């Protein structure tokens, strides 16, 4: 079985408080895009999980979220057979695009199917939060409001169709570092999440992009000024808005014109500001445009 694990961007990211357990309360608008890793899953007679990847620095044991997700279901259902999983990474690592979480989501979907466990999407999502806060969303996909620590999800009607230009500089930002470096008192501007949701429902792309914001961005840009350089290049060349995704350092630009997006992608490659440049579109949950959901 071959499955696509799709990346996400955060159209809006707000932190509204810190809980006693140290976790932060968030409000985020998440959107899946057509950039993906690929999981090949095979059932084996030999028990256990064998995981391999195309990147030598990615762990292939219980430190990997794919391994954790598969093991969780195999243990729960006392499965005697084993799995051989090959993970081909294309989504940048430590990039604020939920690559690892999406890989885990694909593993949940794949194990459920290959062993005919009969779990619904909702039942998979209930188990997925044990592996990571973003994993339930990566099972659901589409446009959604995420609250709590990211696990409370509310479906939003599909955002307006648009182009998405990805630019990731050659730096990595850990989610933990991003959260540890932010203070509630230091947040100067909170994005208008509720206003964005209304704009999405009205299919008003320009109004939505005007309200986009990410509270992590100012602090991460201070540390890595190249993020602002990528943002400025995209916005000077046709992006309605460019913003850092998640905890960074990936920048995405929203375009309503495909030709302008391709021209901006070419300029970004020539600039050498970004190590990864990828022009794509949003994923439509209702559109049937992937073969694995």
Automatic annotation (TrEMBL):
UniProt entry tagged with the keyword Kinase: yes
Catalyzed reactions per annotation: 4-CDP-2-C-methyl-D-erythritol + ATP = 4-CDP-2-C-methyl-D-erythritol 2-phosphate + ADP + H(+)
UniProt keywords, alphabetically: ATP-binding, Isoprene biosynthesis, Kinase, Nucleotide-binding, Transferase
Example GO BP: isopentenyl diphosphate biosynthetic process, methylerythritol 4-phosphate pathway
GO MF terms held by the record: 4-(cytidine 5'-diphospho)-2-C-methyl-D-erythritol kinase activity; ATP binding
Domain of life: Bacteria
Domain GHMP kinase N-terminal: 64-142
Residues annotated for ATP binding in this entry: 92-102
InterPro entries: GHMP_kinase_C_dom, GHMP_kinase_C_sf, GHMP_kinase_N_dom, IspE, Ribosomal_Su5_D2-typ_SF, Ribsml_uS5_D2-typ_fold_subgr
Residue intervals of the GHMP kinase C-terminal domain: 196-265
EC numbers for this chain: 2.7.1.148
A UniProt-annotated Pfam family: GHMP_kinases_C
Pathway: Isoprenoid biosynthesis; isopentenyl diphosphate biosynthesis via DXP pathway; isopentenyl diphosphate from 1-deoxy-D-xylulose 5-phosphate: step 3/6
Record SUPFAM superfamilies: GHMP Kinase, C-terminal domain, Ribosomal protein S5 domain 2-like
Active-site residues from the entry: 8, 134
Family: Belongs to the GHMP kinase family. IspE subfamily.
Protein function: Catalyzes the phosphorylation of the position 2 hydroxy group of 4-diphosphocytidyl-2C-methyl-D-erythritol.
Protein name, UniProt field: 4-diphosphocytidyl-2-C-methyl-D-erythritol kinase
Taxonomic lineage of the native organism: Bacteria, Bacillati, Bacillota, Clostridia, Lachnospirales
This protein's encoding gene: ispE
């Amino acid at each position: 079985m071959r499955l696509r694990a799709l990346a996400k961007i955060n159209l809006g990211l707000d932190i509204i408080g810190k809980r006693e357990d140290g976790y932060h309360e968030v409000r985020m608008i998440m959107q899946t895009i057509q950039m993906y890793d690929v999981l090949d899953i095979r059932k084996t007679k030999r028990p256990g999980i064998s995981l391999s990847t195309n990147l030598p620095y990615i762990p292939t044991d219980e430190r990997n979220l794919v391994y954790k997700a598969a093991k969780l279901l195999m243990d729960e259902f006392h499965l005697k057979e084993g799995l051989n999983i090959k993970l081909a990474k294309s989504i940048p690592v430590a990039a604020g695009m939920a690559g690892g979480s999406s890989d885990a989501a694909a593993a949940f979907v794949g194990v459920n199917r290959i062993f005919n466990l009969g779990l619904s999407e909702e039942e998979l999502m209930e188990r997925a939060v044990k592996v990571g806060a973003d994993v339930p969303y990566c099972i659901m996909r589409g446009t959604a409001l995420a609250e709590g620590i990211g696990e409370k999800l509310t479906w939003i009607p599909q955002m307006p169709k648009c182009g998405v230009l990805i630019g990731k500089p050659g730096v990595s930002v850990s989610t933990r570092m991003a959260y540890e470096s932010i203070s509630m008192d230091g947040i100067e501007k909170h994005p208008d999440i509720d206003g964005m949701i209304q704009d999405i429902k009205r299919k008003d792309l320009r109004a939505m992009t005007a309200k986009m914001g990410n509270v992590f961005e100012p602090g991460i840009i201070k540390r890595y000024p190249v993020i602002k350089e990528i943002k400025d290049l995209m916005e000077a060349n046709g992006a309605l808005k460019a913003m850092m995704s998640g905890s960074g350092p990936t920048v995405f630009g929203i375009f309503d014109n495909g030709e302008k997006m391709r021209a901006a992608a070419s300029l970004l490659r020539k600039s050498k500001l970004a190590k990864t440049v990828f022009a794509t579109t949003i994923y439509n949950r209702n559109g049937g445009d992937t073969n694995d959901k």
